[in-house]
Amino acid sequence: MRKWLLYLEFFLVCGYFVIIPLFMPSPDISDISFNLTPVFILMTGLSFYLFYRYEFSLSERQNLNFLTILLNTGKVLLYFGILIIINIAVSAVSALVQILRGLPVDVLQSNLSINTTDLSFLDWLSGIFKFLISAFFEESLYRLFLPAALLIFTQNLRIRFPKVVRFLIEAVCVVVFALGHRYMGIVAVVNALISGTALRVIYLKNKSILYGFSAHFLYNIFILVLMIVLKN
Predict the structure, then answer these.
(1) Residue 117, Cβ density class (10 Å: 0-12 exposed, 13-18 middle, ≥19 buried)
(2) What share of the chain is helix, strand, coil (3-state, %, to 5)?
(3) Residue 9 lies in a domain
(4) Other C-beta atoms lying within 10 Å of the C-beta of residue 219
């Protein structure tokens, strides 16, 4: 791809899907209903586009697919467990801080409200599909596209300061991902900061977002069920 097209792609994708979520969360991710809006459809298409463009070379893409992930279920469950442990640790520290401050302990520590009243079976299927796509989208955007594009743009600078520039790129991607969860509360931001770092390490270790995506999706479903159980 020509460099000016890469710049255009970067600013269009980041302008709409990275900058805007810092100030206004997408309702598609938190709303469980059969309501596939144009934005959500765009997210779905963009996820597959970014995955196809940045995940592998053609030969690597032929050797690693979703079947490979199914055959490595143990690894996915390990990564899912890591995300759960991070969530438990962050929640425990948050609860301890609340106790020390003499505040009532809020187990969920989230401003996100999910209305499950009068949901049909089709609505639940739609909700699960939305969590599937949101996990795939976030992995494609924050763990794949954003770091890869920034590494390309800073290629000359990285020759002079390789470690510093690489660290700053990784830090920016994780922080932006974490701040995109501000609407869920400060604890969610801290959790996303640590979890985002773990997911990026998972990507670098496996050279694929498919493992992180699978663990991310299972984690989203687990948190959804937990929120429903605790709030009811």
Answers:
(1) exposed
(2) 80, 0, 20
(3) no
(4) 22
Structure tokens at 196: 């985002």
Quote the domain boundaries for residue 134.
127-232
- Whose structure tokens read 């301890």? 96
Q: Which amino acid is at 175?
A: V
Ramachandran region, residue 61 (left: φ > 0; alpha: ψ -120 to 50; beta: rest): alpha
Tens-place pLDDT, residues 56-108: 654 455 566 666 666 688 899 999 999 999 999 998 998 888 888 887 766 55
Decide if 160 is inside a domain: yes
The reported pTM is 0.86
Assess if residue 83 is contained within a domain. no
Distance of CA 175 to the CA centre of its chain: 12
**Size (the chain), residues:** 232
Give the tokens for residue 120. Answer: 């049909």
Structure tokens at 171: 């830090």
Per the CB < 8 A criterion, the answer to whether 164 and 87 are in contact is no
State how many domains the chain has.
Answer: 1
Assigned token pair, 155 = 């290629």
Q: Is 47 part of any domain? A: no
User: Residue 162, Cβ neighbours under 10 Å: how many?
Assistant: 11
- With CA atoms as reference, report the closest residue to 22 among 181, 209, 199: 181
- Asked if 142 and 196 touch (Cβ cutoff 8 Å), the reply is yes
